[in-house]
Protein 1
Amino acid sequence: MRFKFLLLSVLIFFSIPAAAETNRDAVSSNELPAGDPFGEAEAIISSSSNAEDTIGEKADTVSSDILSGYLESRALLLHSAPKQEWLFQNANKLKLKLDKSFNRINFHSEINFSYYAGHTRLCLLEYLPQKQVKALSNLFGTNFSADVYNYNYNNRITVFRAYGVITLPRVSFFIGRQPVTCGTGYVWNPVDPVNKKDMLDPDYELPPLDALRVMLPLPAVKGELNCAYGFRNNFKDGEFLAFIRAHAWLDWHLVYAYYNYHKTDFLTGLTTSGKRSLIGAAFAGQAGEVGIHGEAAYHTGIKKKATAYFSWLAGFDYTFTFQNRIMAEFYRNDSGSKNSQQYTLQSWLSYINMEQGCLGKNYLYLSSTQILFDITELSLSALINLSDSSYCLMPQYKIMALDQLDILLRCMIMDGSKGSEFAAVNESGELRINFYF
Amino acid sequence: MTIDNQSWRRYIFQQVARFSAENPVKILAATVIVTLLAVVIASGLKVQMTWLDMVPQDNPAVAEFERISRNFGSATDIILTIENESKSKMKKIAREVAAELRRLQSPGLAELNGKGEGYLFKDVDCRLDQDFILEHGLMLQKTADLKESKDIFRNLDLVPFMQAVNDNFEKTYIGGKREIRGNQHSVIQGINSYMDVLRELHQLTGKEAAAARGRICAGNYFDDMLYSFSIDKKMLMLMLQPACSVDDIKKIGIIVPLLRQKLQKYKKKYPDTVFRHTGFHVIMQDEMEAATQDSMVLTNIAFFIILIAFVILFRMWGSPLIAMLVLLVGIAWDMALAEIFIGRLNIMTAMTAVMLIGLGVDFFAHFLTAYNEGRDKGMISTRASVYAAGKAGEGIFTGALTTAAVMFCLMLADMKALQELGLVIGCGILTTMLASFIIMPAVLSLMQPREKYHIPVWVKFLSWLLAVVTILPLVLMLINYLNKKFFSYQTCAGQNIFRRAGSFITQKPRRVFLTGIAVIAGLSWFIQYNWFDQNIMNIEMKGLESVELQREIVRRYGLSDTPVMYATTNLEQTQKLHHRIDKHNAVGMVNSIASFIPLFAKQQKRLPYLKQIQQQVGAYTPGQEIDRRHFIREVNRFKTNLLELRQLAAISDQELVEKRLDTVLVSNKGFFTTLEQKLKQVSGSRLSAFQKAFGSTLKTVLFKMSGPQLINYADVPPALKADYVNTDQTEFLTTAFSKKDIWNAPTESRFIKFMRQTVKNVTGTPVFMVDLINIVAREGKTAMYISLLVIFLLVLLDFKQFRPALISLLPLALAMLTMFAVTGLLQYPFNVVSVMVLPLIIGIGIDDGVHILHRYRIEKKHIPTVLQTTGKALFFTSFTTMVGFGSLMFAKYQGFVGMGLVLFIGIGACFLITIIIVPALLKLLDSKKR
Amino acid sequence: MKVKYALKLFSILIIFTPALSALSSAAIVARMEKAAAVPGCRMLYRQVIKRASGSRSVFKIESFTMNGNEKQLLRYLHPAKVKGTAFLILNSGDDIWAYFSATGRVRRIARHARRQKMMGSDFTYEDMSMTAFKEKYKAELLGEDKVFAKACYKLKLIPKERSSYAKLIVWTDKKLFVPLLVNYYAAGEKTAYKQFMQGKIKVINSYPVARMVIMKNLEDNSQTIMQVLQVEMKPNINEDMFVPSYLKR
């Protein structure tokens, strides 16, 4: 033992003067140029390029601020199986983006003004299969208008993003409410414990995270190391997320995360929350013409409270010459249930409350997107829960009439055997209009 | 076994403490007297802020420099600049000022000299000796330039003159000898003088007598050469030769302020003129003032921050303040020692007070912590003090001893600054430690609600007197009052935090240790980005007029500011060297007596040209009328030449020329067009009158200047000799300026390399700088090694075991790594000062490890308790030290900023590592053993 | 004659020894010239001058070259104050003509000016003629070395005629024979004071073209960087371009 430490300390002692030595070497001229002169040169060029019109002037600092955003109006039509009626909801969102950048510090902020009209009180029962409804009503009585059964869409103003980026010579800091994402999957991201995607609308904007993030570029692997510390429910229990995002050889991520999970026992109403840690990797690359990507993550429960499980994802995409892009993704999540029989009220509720990623074990996502006349895009995608063999078809038509205006028309047709995931809600439709400014 | 042989130390401390606590009155009385004495002594201290102290004393260059500056005052002139729009006015003022300053005396100086007269300045130069230049002016020109002059002065009528000028300009492109990229200034000089002529012509439509204008114009054409104008002709330099050497602080203290008074007077007298001054002496004075002020301010800041921290941490009012005051007593003692041993504070010791506040307070912290424990255990003050002495004594002693030891190691270094630093801080640590042991118990026992003692009034008075000696009496009274009201013994803040940390670590030692190591390893990736800034100007003080001016002069006169110099023993050698050096393309300018007595051979070569010129000029008679159209054509041709020169300058990156031409061609746009019109309007009579006067004056001057007689040593006027020859005519001074900015990277400078090759005994500040940097590279390392070695031995001595000694060194080593990493990350360059203080980190950082390990043994290896008790103390001590040094980051003197930063980071890292990694490691080792 | 021999020598070498290890200095120099002797080429490059003070100047320059650098035509496109100014450099930098857009005059620049800075801080006219190795320098092979992770021959070049350099140490790429690094030494000095570097090398029409050229002044760390923006091989470039009168166009 002792010798190890002797060795260690000796090493360190010699490394100190060595370090000091290198400093001086930087100035003393040796035959061969020190460091990477060409990289240096590029830096100089890039830093002088905006000084082109002024001979001998220093490159002056760039300062800019842009106000942008969009107005989004969604008209949702949803057929409620139990009531046998169509429910209409109109959700509007005004998003304001303000980017202010000065010199080394950039600041981004987004504010959402959300306004809901129509059927703004959504009843759980519309999502639950009859079996579960019964189980539920035994617990809470049959007064379905009680709050326990309903979720309210309230008009609200939210600060969606607000973070500053400080860029130092060899490191940058992201401070504030920011998006922290990793992973290469489209519908699911096993390696990303922070953001819970809505698998019926994976494109939709991801929730933010109040975090302090440090980003170190790793030129060796053409990537960067991100270390984020997220302050979850006002600073009480933090989450830690460290991932390397690199695109040497192919795009790949390495992720380590230490995150919260909550498990509410809806029968007793008690919430147990704890920490999980995750080790994962993701990649995206090309196999000839075909694009392939995959993710795998191993979730362990800290202190053995939660069970460890494994989840992975594999997918490919291919674009035909006639501007058609097909994509497929298979997702397996060991924490899910094998078949619809195993769905419990518990699992349903925790799924609806976003505590559990998904109900089933195996999912398959297929999509085919055809671009028509350059400005419109017709796509048909299917989300299949292989565990309970229920599915959701999502035809979608998108019109990018002007570069400021997007119109999206989509509907969901769901079906499956009794008690399966997509059986409860039959179909729903949506018209979404985005106006960017 | 180890406990036993430590007990004797403990015993001694306990005795001391007991004695002090039992006879507080005696102790305090003694303290007051000693301290008063110390303050009186220390008041004699002076601050001398020159980095020259950092150059080893045995360096021959230094000795040579001192010798030269003694023999030739001109080596270190005070430079006085006058700025005004009109040249003539500047000349007038310069003459006036020079005359008065020559006569300026001061009684104070007189008595310092012990002689009757106390002239401030040995000599004041404002212009070259007119007669000499008039007689030999052209002989001093380079042969190449003579050829040109010959062409230009072939015919002094305006048209041919202008034509010759243009031809000459175009030569610079075609085949001629003169280089585009020669000395930019010669080009600019040329442009200026020709522009002057044109400007006069531009005025010609005015009322004044044309002849007068012509005469003045021609007169100035040469008179300007006598003064040292800046390139843009907006600044004029005077050289004042002070009557004292640069290291004579006392005299400088008289001369510079007096000079300032005078300048104030002139500022009033000529409101439209700017007077500024710089030079070695001035900067010395300024930096001394600034540094003194800095140290005052910073000391106060540090004092209060730390006091507040103290109060918060101990949740007490009285004892912390008392402790701080006692600390100041210790510092006062140290200052007295400094005055006795050294007699001044230097660039590195100037901030001793600040550092000691940071360092010394630790002892008090440890002492008080233990003391409070004692009180918590319900002991009375005296017993508590003894208990404290027993408990914290060894820790403090070892800590202080190691730190002091490192400091004293610095005395082995062979540069004055470091030796002094070592001495002063070393003593300071010991004095403050003594103060903590001897005075603290006494004061504490006085402050407590009395068990045994009833305090007589005169004792109170004494204790207040003590306070008076160490400022803030009123506060103390208030404090005493507050004490009686709510004095509390509750255990101090933050302990449980450390306890929790401790228990966490004990639970997961491996994880903590590995993470810690991993983090450091990761950070150390940045070490490679450290760099060393050689530019001494960057550690100078910011915002000092004298420093700024120095740089401005460099810019406006286009020199490298500080010359290297050497002395030669005979004239011929001087001339030869002068010639040889002048040829090298890294050399910007060479000045010596040889500038006025060229080599005989060269003079011979020039003679024929002089003869020719004299013939030409002699033959010349001003022509009556002028071919106006032709002249205008020539003027425009001149303009085109300037335009081309400007583009060429822009491309070949000759900023000075370019700037000058911008002002000529762009700033006063339309000059040439209006000139053309005016030349068309102006009456022929005026024009010819001008030409006549111009020509004839030029003729007379030129005729004299081109006198074909050789220059002998005797011809040179004494005023000139005074600058370059010593009084008994046995030595000749040569100063040489680099073409490039010499401070940028002195060790790389070809100029210096070349000078050292060619001249053995070359000296001057740039030369020291090179030596200094090389030494710093060497010394810095040796200093570090030595101090590491000494420390290790001491720790070994202390623990009598190999492993704990190593472990207590571990945090230090890791901290060093972290420090280098962070500086690399911030890209904050090291400089000669900040590198020199690296050993300090070793000296200070070692304490933490030692304390922890001591406590680890005492507490029977129960880590939570260790952290609970020592952790807080460590936090406090590190915090205070960081504040002490950290406050240096706000100093005006840039050298301190880096120093402060490095120490701040280093010590911070040390602390963190000590309370996180070391305990984990200890735990690991134990579990391994079992 | 000798040269011919050398050339023959390496045509043989090329055939028989794939690993060109045992090349004579003469051979290497010849190969270097061969590699540099681009028959005709048009380049657009950005020149950035970084001064010791840290201030920068940026120029955009269009250049036409013939037979390597034997004939060069440089025209400044940016910034405004030098726009249009052009240089004609003939006989590998022996004759230099300048055209000034400000006045529209063409002037001949003195031969002795060759040792002076041109085109900003660190290149001299002499450096522009870095291609006429055989004619201008006496070469000596010092051995083999690695620079920028490339295997190189290390050569010592001594100027034959009057020059501002006492000697040059050249590291030339073993495969492409492009000088990757050149150290310039002044008389009687052990350490180099200028450093010339070529990087981002790409083979175009079988000629290696460095798209990043740096001349670094080791004294004050000022440097001049030439970043090639466009390269266009013009094998049959019009020779009439390279006459003073053409400058005016």
Note: The two ends of chain B are 21 Å apart (CA to CA).
Protein 2
Amino acid sequence: MPISRKLEELPKIATREGYGQTLVELGKENENIVVLDADLAAATKTNMFAKAFPDRHINCGIAEANMAGIAAGLAASGKVPFISSFAMFVSGRAYEQIRNSIGYPGLNVKIGASHAGISVGEDGATHQCNEDIALMRSIPGMMIINPSDNIEAQAAVRAAYAHKGPVYMRFGRLAVPVFNDREDYKFELGKGIILREGKDVTVFATGLCVVEALYACDMLAKDGIDVELINIHTIKPLDEALVVSSAAKTGRVFTVEEHSIIGGLGSAVSETLSENCPTKVTRLGMRDVYGVSGPAVELLHKFELDAEGIYHQIKETLKND
Amino acid sequence: MDRLELKKMALNVRKGIVDSIYSAKAGHPGGSLSAADLFTYLYFKELNVDPKHPKMESRDRFVLSKGHTAPGLYAALAYRGFFPVEDLVTLRHVGSYLQGHPDMKCVPGVDMSTGSLGQGLSAAVGMALAGKMDGKEYRVYALCGDGEIQEGQIWEASMFAGHRKLDNLVVIVDHNKLQIDGKVEEVCSPYPIAQKFQAFNFHTITIDGHNFDEIEAAFKEARETKGMPTAIIANTLKGKGVSFMEDIAEWHGKAPKKEEYEVAVEDLRKEGEALCR
């Protein structure tokens, strides 16, 4: 299978590292930042902040609902709290606290959700959250950023801090290729990034699936399929103008995400296109199923969300068009 | 404000509760009335607040964790001067800022949006923690229901507050013994309440929540208690002040009809007359 050697040679870093590092950098510049954890500071990488600023790190113990509420109270008192846990526990367990104590009053709380998706790996289905984007999208005023690599994760954390209001940031456990390390990389909240222009189909990808889709595009190009690949790091608000213009150009759309095909990027793109530019959309992601235990890379392969799986799914689907 | 004035103000607050809920044709009179003396004492004696500067940084914070009793909070805020008393009757009307449950974005003097039981105390804990981190003098008060403490989040917040020794935090439990479905001890007993808070490293004080001397003494004791948060268990009567609502679970969450409203107003008027004698 022909994969660009250059991509293969890229260093691999988990996006949660970027979260931890950037919090430390922001913490030096901004006294009002406080970081909250629910006994997972080592896993969410916020232990770096805890070490640098022990007085501004608040471990709430294993009590995510209370952590979200405490953050609301801190934000109401002028702090900028970042609450951190696994995506499953912070978006799932504390959903209603985020909705009612943070979202409804519009408090300036940032949610750092690590270990999202099936790439959690061996811990299995109870810890693999494929529903968090769906949950968070439904909260009015919630911004959602799902960075694709460590560079983008760092930019996302800075942008989240600069934005006034609640932001949900989705990070992964798995070390993934750092492909945004280039001079012309520019992160703008709410703006998709065209990684490759094409005329046959558009692929909207998010999170760790972006780099996998990049590999898949190379394979599809060799088969004569010219793909336009767009990185959607901000899922809400969605870059509707870009989604519509690219769909209008190619007339065929795929979405790729390490998340359920219900309620995530696939839904957001489908909703926008249904209303503005009806286009056939195929959603690649978790097909309304739970994950299983296993090494992350093997799971991405099993659920066809690695380059080979994305390539195969797009190729086969287009055959039947 | 002396005892008599406090009692008269509490009657105003009760009248505001009855008027606003009658006008809204919906709301929660029982728990608003049981906490009316607590609301009155807090806003007219205890809290360092300024109606002209509702966001004053040094203010004491109040979180109504039992947010459904907003009519009591709104009445106290209105009489304290945060907004016009005449606005109370817009409660729950489309277009009114007086939402069914407190909304900090649009009601002057409301420090936290609440309504979903169990959540307000965590926010109060966050405010108390911020005060400690910044060396601020302000104190934080949270009012919970005795049914509300069935929520697990109350105990997560209490564990944290005790652990962090937040002595700038006072939790008041409006212990009126009733919740929507009946007696708290029959629905799912929260007893023993004081011992539970003690086990979470709180100082506890049990009082008659309708006796201003006891309320005053309890808040004083709370201020003097160092190294741990205080929980005040206030024994109250649900529906207090309106004869046919007293100690009846059914009046947890419904509005009086016209004839009932007239009886309620008459009850409060007579009480006022008695105070003037």
Note: Chain A touches chain B through 29 residues (CB under 8 Å).
Protein 3
Amino acid sequence: MLGKLSWAAIPFNQPVPLIAGSVVILIVLAVITWVVLSGHLPYLWREWITSVDHKRIGVMYMLLGLTMLVRGFVDAIMMRSQQAFAFRAPGYLPPEHYDQIFSAHGTIMIFFSAMPLVIGLMNFVVPLQLGIRDVAFPTLNSVGFWLTATGALLVNISLVVGEFARTGWLPYPPLSELTYSPGVGVDYYLWSLEISGVGTLLAGINLVTTVLKLHAPGMTYSRMPMFCWTTLASNLLIVAAFPILTATLTMLVLDRYFGFHFFTNEAGGNVMMFVNLIWAWGHPEVYILVLPAFGVFSEVVSTFSRKPLFGYRSMVAATMAICILSFMVWLHHFFTMGAGADVNAMFGIASMIIAVPTGVKVFNWLFTMYGGRIVYTTPMLWSIGFMITFVIGGMTGVLLAVPPVDFVLHNSVFLVAHFHNVVIGGVLFGAFAGYSYWFPKAFGFRLHEGWGKAAFWLTFAGFYVVFLPLYTAGLWGMTRRMQHYDVAMWRPFVLIAAIGIVIMACAAGCQLVQLVVSIRRREELRDVTGDPWNGRSLEWATPSPPPAFNFPVLPNIRGEEAYWGMKQRALEQARLGEEPAYADIEMPRNSPTGFICAFFATFMGFALIWHIWWLAGVAAVGAYATFVVFAWRDKDEYIFPAATVARIDRANRSARSAALAARREAAS
Amino acid sequence: MDADHAGNPDLLPNETKRLKSQSLLRAVAMCCAVIMAPVVLSACKPAVLDPQGLVGLAVRSILIDSVAIMLAIVIPTIAAILAFAWWFRASNARAVYLPDWVYSGRIELVVWSIPLMVIMLLGGVAWIGSHDLDPAKPLSSSAPPVEVQVISMDWKWLFIYPDQGVASVNQLVIPAGAPIRFSLTSASVMNAFFIPQLGSMIYTMNGMTTQLNLQADTPGTLRGLSSQFSGDGFSDMHFKVLVLPQDRFDAWIEAARGAGPTLDPETYAALVKQSANVSPFTYRAAAPGLFRQIVAQKLPPGPGPRSGRPNPSVSPRMEE
Amino acid sequence: MTAFDAAAGRDDPHRLRHDWQPPVYRQHTLGHASGGLVSKRIITGFGFWIFLLSDIVMFSAFFAAYAVLVGDTAGGPSGRELFNLRNVGFETAFLLLSSFTVGIARIGARAQSDSWYYGAMAATFVLGAAFLSIELREFAGMVARGAGPTRSAFLSAFFTLVGCHGLHITAGLLWLLTMMAQVFAKGYRADILRRILCFNLFWHALDIIWVAIFTVVYLMAVAV
């Protein structure tokens, strides 16, 4: 009746997960209770949960990503502290638990923190930068978000019911096969990724269609902001790579559930095929993460250098080159599997070639700063920190791309330091830069600068204190994923790294404090005009936060940096442009489809994990039925009357006129 | 707060700028300390950079050369980043302001071609190095090679010496100065055989054979481990590598032949069950062709976990 | 009122709102969420094409797995011993014909002809179901002979690749019935016509994938 599920699946006899799980459950229940009792539920349901507005969905993605970042970071703290204790000692985390933690750390950070963060930024910003009202498929956008949240929920449920995978964040067979991992852990991993993979694919299709097909009048491809180009490249990669992940995980599911033999030791299964397929997805995945971060930096560096981006066309060429090349390098993740010298060398060289367009981008940002008037706001600090850190990480990457070097550094903590170098230095710094840069647009007030800068410096310093010792320990022969060790030479490095994680924890604390302080002081930090940074692209032409329809009339784009051009004309003519002719605006209607579909998907995933077949069937039917019901609706749009549009826009225009007048006064 | 200040963050006070430079210096100092401290603290040498064999020596020289080549670009780039970020700060009236400078053909040529040339150089290093140091490529040496067959298990290592007819668990004894030809496989899950001070690692997979050639030049004790995560007992999958002079190696073989159990399909099946932290021991005889039988899966792969909480199908556990 | 207006649902009492006015198409001020410049039909079609491309990538991964594992029969039967090319011929004929009928169905929908639409959709369903029944019988037969997917890696790959295609056909048949029900309930509304377009693209894509399957799996098994 309940498959493999029983009360014994809850870790009553293991203090660490029990306490952690109870704390999380209490917090969640407390939040839900507060929301319901204070009467916020109808607002939340109407304005957020059922919203198909790309801005709302973008904010929810960011919220999911930041929350999961905390969860993954706690895993990291546990890993570093366990290793700090476990020199010739068992430490406080037994192997079966430690193995789950490093697997969950990687899975959560990549799939449920980094992906939502970049997808959230792309979702929020791209329609605003393109001068349009929403993405191509708003309801599918909502479905994509909620399915991703389902995946995150399932992974977190594994903390309290059953266990998570103990294979590492990529479940290599035969370890992940039923023989060697008969537990529910790998199943939790598989179903949460299969479900959230559908969500990610929907986001990819949506954003590719939006960037290629929906533009404001006059915005040709060569007038798009750089962030839109990197969005295009990243989402093309999603569309091309995620189906490989789906197929590969499906093969593992078939092996585990139906006794197929894709990757088993017996009956002809091929373990190397898994490694190839999973990395054929895995390498494009890291570019899916880092390309939007590159886009953020292009926006931030040019805005805070007070100059247009240097070398726009070669940036575009470099981006698309990275997009294509990222599919040709996957073997560098397993040089040591024995493919032979020719194959190893070719993939090594291809991996180095991809450093060329990346280097071009770094130089273009450098020359954007050259001849600029740089302002050190928090986003700009993140960008400069990124440039330095990413160059180092890229160097160690090219080093690892030389196969003989990889033969001695593969799977060591040198490798761990390298990929954290590029993911933290690239993706995380980019996410924080984007977060602090576009926060005022999303919420109408800026974040507190002082706490933001403290967070940056602590993160920057903490990162080096954690990972420089790990680079060194890798050269001392320390391999990754060790629950305990007995080599005295590694001990100092592990201890210094543990100190570094404390510094990074303080940084995380600063980010939290920054948010709280900014909310409390939001009137002081209010963004009245919608353009707090003297921006250059179209999103800064809207009020903060933008109304649901973004633009009262779609802007007519005349050149690159459309908004900058508008502002210069306004400055010259000492007044804003003409008031447009307002008309009714049709917007897509909200829909609970995403939430309800995810609701059924959660039950289906859980049921499949625990072998509760009847529940899986019911939930699958429910998910299908949700779409049929959605297909049956008649009213899919609602109207903003012209009068409302006029009122909103006139308020913003008067604020901007006042700012313009004040500026001319200050200048004279 | 007037609209101008809200939109013009370059009116920050000097205080913040001074703090920024102080913090920058502090960060740089911390980085240096972090790198230098362990070097000063411990008298040990880093395994990978202190090779004991010719393969490791070749790898180290490639590593150092590659880093040097790349630092030639990386250091000027980082210096330029810091220099530009500092010089072109908004409050620096002496810096030139070029608000319309967005393209330069010469710069384009340089930023595309210099990395390309460096990559071509490194690519050459990679091509030559991959071929010279291919794990399966036999080492050129006057001494006759010693064959060792390696089987990774959960969670220990079995070494069979087919020519000498003995086997050893969790301890590898090899003669100094002779090339060792390893043939590797796994009895269960994927592992990787790695002796950091001797050079390359290689994966081990069930049903397949991988090849590795290493050589230890001088006698000593080295450390070997598995570098591919393989389950709960993974952290204990390290083994001692004793490099002995040829005569002492022969003596060790003789001693091994004198005592200990024999390795045959039955004892193999017992060995292959999951266990961790196994103390080293030797087999006095190894059935011939055992390795080939393991690779051909005539001897089935090792079993998985037998116990669990509440049962293996929910959460498996190592045998206590 | 032209047929196009009717197809766009401008006379549909169910549509949108009670005080509907014909929109004023002033340049650059049309506030439609889609941007007002490119039609919804193009956007929907394009997005669906991107989805189909992603689906083809997924099939490519299964094709790759099949190509790698085709020789790993673990002492069991190989394709040459198992495949019945006559059945494959019938399956191919049914599927290709169904692609033709589904195209007719779309033309009928755009011409708002009930007989052509329902007739052609029904024919598509019958042909698709016939394809599925042959495939299911083939699978059942193989399982009965001890050549099921758990026998060897080759058979796992075969059943997964061909079975994945069969699952897509099954989902397509469900979608087909839903589209017939939609037209029955709502008529030839613009959004329903867009969905019929997507269904057509889906069905044709499945046909193309089948061509790849019968070449790579069936023909190459008996060749040489």
Note: Residues 54-87 of chain B form the longest helix (34 residues).
